[in-house]
Amino acid sequence: MDIRVTFDDVTLTGDLAVVAGLLALEPGPKSSIIISLFSDARAGAADELPDDETSRRGYWADALSDDPEESTGSLLWLLQREKQTEKTRLRAKAYAERSLQWMIRDGVARAITVVAEWIGQGRLGLGIAVSRPDGTTERYRFEQIWQAAEAE
Description:
Layout: E1 2-3, E2 5-8, E3 13-16, E4 18-19, E5 22-23, E6 25-26, H1 30-38, H2 86-105, E7 111-120, E8 123-131, E9 137-145
Antiparallel strand pairs: 1-6, 2-3, 4-5, 7-8, 8-9
């Protein structure tokens, strides 16, 4: 069981769910997926930062880990001002896949499938399929708002 995290695709914010004054619980991996995709992973020295960005960001708890493979979050934030191109879509897919690999390493999933597609101007949809160890598959859909410039 995880504490339930809700995500608002429009404001790009997450919050803990509360029911009757108590933190709500969730039996599946959705909250873990939300944290993995939408927490900001630390950008590497070679990563190009978005315009007007000076911070390489990073999830605060990663400072407590000695293992760089155990970082939390994704680099999706690096794409916030990218043009709506095939290259950007492929980078988003790769960033999402990388951020979810811990689920396979930790035995939460046998496989993770990510589909990234442009669903409108400035809107990228992420479809996530989690193949669980018991043979079941759970599917999740997220729509990301981009401050994307039109492709030239």
